[in-house]
Every structure is written in C-alpha cells, then in structure tokens.
Amino acid sequence: SNFCDIRQNNYFYVDKTEFIGDWWKNGTLATLITRPRRFGKSMTMSMVKYFFSTEYANEKDDIFKGTKIWNDEKMMKIQGTYPVISMTFGKCKSQDVNSILKAIKQEIADATISFRQVLLQNADKLDENEINFINSINYEMSDDIAFNAINKICMLFAKVYNKNVIILLDEYDAPMIKFWVNRDD
Q1: How far apart are CA 108 and CA 160, in angstroms?
Q2: Chain Cα centroid distance, residue 142
C-alpha cells in the first residue's frame, strides 16, 4: 500500500494517478472513499500523500514520471507544495476503549510531531500560547490536547505558511468496527 515503493521498485501497477487531478479539480472540502476491502483505498491515499506533500517535492521524477498525472502541467506545478497529515487507524483496534484512545493519541502524535518542528522554526510568527500548545503535542499529551491537535496544527500552518493542510485518514472506521464486533453483549 506504499505508492513510492511500487513506483521505485518497478512493481506491476495500474496507473490511477488521474484520480489526483480529478479529485483536486472537483474542489470538495472533504472526500469519503468507500470501497470494499482490498480495493486500493490505502494505495490511493498513499499516492495522494506522495503527490501533494512538501516532504516529497524533490522526488517527483522518481515517483510520478511516466504516469498519467505527469502529463498534466497544471497539476505537476502544485506537486509537492502542500503540507499533508496522513494517519491510519488500522492499528488502533482493541476491545478496550482506553486502549483505542491511547492508540489514536499515539497516531495523532506521530502525524503531528514533524509539523511541530516546522512550525517552531517559525516561532516568530506565533504567540506564546500557540508555541506552548505545539510543545504540548507528544505521546503523553492530555485528551484535550489530542482532541484539538490536528485542528490547531492546521490553523497554525495556515497562519504561518498561508497554506491549507491536506488531511488523509485511512481505516478511520477500524477502531469502531473492532470494538463493536468484539464487544461484550
């Protein structure tokens, strides 16, 4: 389910990069992709992450050359220009609510720690409360901090970089399904 691995290792791949342009040009605020298991949802999110994320801006030749999106000049100009928070809740499965919440908090911390460093490099554009909030994001953060972390990071990124954050949530339903199926009646 890692788009970059498939492209760099020349594995067999059905090119679905046209989805990126179609999705982007649609301009929706939120998109829910509902397909059966093993249909390629995780691969699609990985592809979107590698396309938009500033983290992979210098790897576009390795990853996207020869794909359908490569020929779309307008889309290739925005490749690698957006901050992307990508989280998967596939491992956040348990029969215990507290274990699920702890796993979700860890996933939030993992997804936002790199953004914390980038934002703190621009601390001159932030006030003291914002800096304190950013520093409070860690594996031991309170439930209140975790609850607000993604939203606050997105707002701060927009403030500092004047750019919206793309948020990708994979297997968002896994914790609820696992809990519901295995609950004690």
Answers
A1: 21
A2: 22
H helix runs in 79-142, sequence order:
97-120, 128-136
pLDDT in tens, 95-117: 777 888 888 889 889 888 878 88
Q: What is the rounded distance in angstroms from the CA atom of residue 127 to the CA atom of residue 124?
A: 8
Distances in whole angstroms, Cα of residue 15 to Cα of each of 35, 36, 66: 18, 19, 9
The pTM of this model reads 0.81
The tokens describing 35, both together, are 């397909």
Tokens of 39: 């249909």
Q: Report how far apart, in Å, the C-alpha atoms of 13 and of each of 1, 43, 45, 140 are.
A: 11, 11, 15, 40
**Maximum pairwise Cα distance, the chain:** 56
